[in-house]
UniProtKB/TrEMBL annotation, chain A:
This is Glycine dehydrogenase. It comes from the Bacteria.
Automatic annotation (TrEMBL), chain B:
Belongs to the sigma-70 factor family. ECF subfamily. Residues 123-174 form the RNA polymerase sigma factor 70 region 4 type domain. This is Sigma-70 family RNA polymerase sigma factor. The lineage of its organism: Bacteria, Pseudomonadati, Bacteroidota, Flavobacteriia, Flavobacteriales. Keywords: DNA-binding, Sigma factor, Transcription, Transcription regulation. InterPro entries: RNA_pol_sigma-70-like, RNA_pol_sigma-70_dom, RNA_pol_sigma70_r2, RNA_pol_sigma70_r4_t2, RNA_pol_sigma_r2, RNA_pol_sigma_r3/r4-like, WH-like_DNA-bd_sf. Pfam families: Sigma70_r2, Sigma70_r4_2. Residues 12-75 form the RNA polymerase sigma-70 region domain. The keyword Transcription applies. SUPFAM superfamilies: Sigma2 domain of RNA polymerase sigma factors, Sigma3 and sigma4 domains of RNA polymerase sigma factors. It comes from the Bacteria.
Length: 88, 183
């Protein structure tokens, strides 16, 4: 696979990175163009891109949130204080 | 010998996002969710001696969290009698407004959709647990917190190329894990 793809503009690993950047809207115009050209002839990357886009959709649908760092600090302090009194 | 042991100093780093996402969809209020998780951690420390090590640390914390959520609803239900019920839609001054208020929002999800999405979120966090800790942290900063590449690079002291390689590995692992566990 690798030898054949080296004749073209970008290889599969670079296409993978471009695809990831595109998921976060961080890909430049040239990166998007290179990716699209690569996708024309690379079936494996087309499949990977489809899978990657599906993952983005799932993450969006899941509405995952992370706790604010301040709150984590409060919990850590609470645990540390309580832990030393409960289990000295 | 017990298969699992407790390490309270790691609870916040390892489980707080999971516990938070588990709680938020059930109580629908960040402040209340934070309070319930705080109570969960304290209750867990109090009963740490009773931990037999048969379940994983996270399963054990979730079982305490479930009790705390039930306690929360019991508490608010006991105040039910004091609830104010608005039934005066058809006063002269606001006639007509009520129709607009009562029209179903087409974008509203059903309770089942919300729970399914929450389960999906928890499955994603589960999968992230199984990949390299640093990769998972960087992935969360980029994908869940939506931080800029530059900001994350400064925080973790890595180059943008490193970041994208890490994100690529994390996404590949996550997609494979979800395909195995979710679909």
């Amino acid at each position: 696979m690798g030898v054949k793809k080296k004749n073209f503009l970008i290889d599969c690993s670079e296409a993978g990175i471009c695809c990831d950047k595109a998921q976060y809207k961080d890909a430049s115009f040239s990166e998007k163009a290179k990716l699209l050209i690569h996708l024309i002839y690379c079936k494996i990357c087309r499949k990977r891109t489809f899978r990657n886009s599906k993952l983005t959709k799932l993450i969006k649908e899941s509405k995952l949130q992370s706790c604010p760092e301040d709150q984590k600090k409060v919990w850590k302090e609470q645990i540390q204080t309580k832990n030393t009194t409960e289990n000295p | 010998m017990a298969a699992n042991s407790l390490n309270p100093n790691n609870w916040v780093d390892k489980y707080s996002d999971y516990l938070f996402n588990y709680t938020i969809v059930r109580v629908n209020d960040r402040e209340i969710a934070n309070d319930i998780i705080s109570e969960t951690f304290l209750a867990a420390l109090k009963s740490a001696k009773n931990f037999k090590g048969e379940a994983s640390e996270r399963t054990w914390l979730i079982s305490i969290l479930k009790r705390k959520i039930i306690d929360y609803y019991r508490k608010i239900n006991s105040r039910k009698g004091k609830a104010e019920v608005r039934i005066n839609y058809n006063t002269d001054s606001n006639e007509g407004d009520w129709l607009e208020e009562q029209v179903a929002d087409s974008s509203d999800m059903t309770a089942e959709d919300v729970m399914e999405n929450n389960e999906l979120g928890l499955a994603i966090l589960d999968c992230l647990d199984s990949i390299n800790e640093k990769h998972a942290a960087i992935f969360k900063r980029k994908t869940i917190d939506g931080l800029d590449t530059e900001e994350i690079c400064n925080e973790f002291d890595i180059t943008p190329s490193n970041l994208w390689v890490i994100i690529h590995r994390a996404r590949t692992a996550l997609a494979a894990c979800l395909e195995k566990n979710w679909f």
